Amino acid sequence: MTTNFIFELPMRVRDYECDLQGIVNNAVYQHYTEHCRNEFMRQRLIGLETLHERGIDTVVARVEINFKSPLRPGDNFVVRLAVEKEGIKYVFTQDIFRPADQKLCARATTTVVCLVNGRLGQCPELDTLLPQP
Q1: How many whole angstroms separate alpha carbon 66 and alpha carbon 62?
Q2: I need a labelling partner for 55 at 20 to 30 A (CA). Which of 15, 17, 48, 80 fits?
């Protein structure tokens, strides 16, 4: 499956993110993808706090993560991001990739919707983040 990634964020595993088995705890991968999405919006548009001040809140509606290869303490990794729009939903595909051995560690699909002044709605600001045909 080929994904056209439009953003990537390098990161590093911190010791406290790992469980007794010495691998990153499964819940931490969602933190990685969330941080990447927030940085993507901050760098390409504005921060979530500014959107909130305008009455626009992005809300995660669904998350699916497929775990492929574990990350360990000190590993460097990259979170890659692609986004597309399906109706009023924004679907983010994010791969967590370890460059040292070319391993895909996890693939997440996160569906986000927008609440505009407390109601589900369209968000022209987020539409500007979509890849242009």
Answers
A1: 14
A2: 80
Name the residues annotated as catalytic. Answer: 19
Q: Which two tokens stand for residue 100?
A: 């040292």
The string of pLDDT tens digits covering residues 96-126 is 999 999 999 999 999 999 999 999 998 888 8
Tokens encoding 34: 């969330």
Q: What distances in angstroms separate CA 48 from CA 41, 53, 115, one per listed residue?
A: 7, 9, 12
Looking at residue 32, its amino acid is: Y
Q: Quickly list DSSP for 41-98.
A: HHHHS--HHHHHHTTEEEEEEEEEEEE-S---TT-EEEEEEEEEEETTEEEEEEEEEE
For residue 79, with 0-12 CB atoms within 10 Å meaning exposed, 13-18 middle and 19 or more buried, which class applies?
buried
Question: Ramachandran region of residue 20, left (φ > 0), alpha (ψ -120 to 50) or beta?
Answer: alpha
Residue that is written with structure tokens 């790992």 in the block: 18
Mean pLDDT of the chain, nearest integer: 92
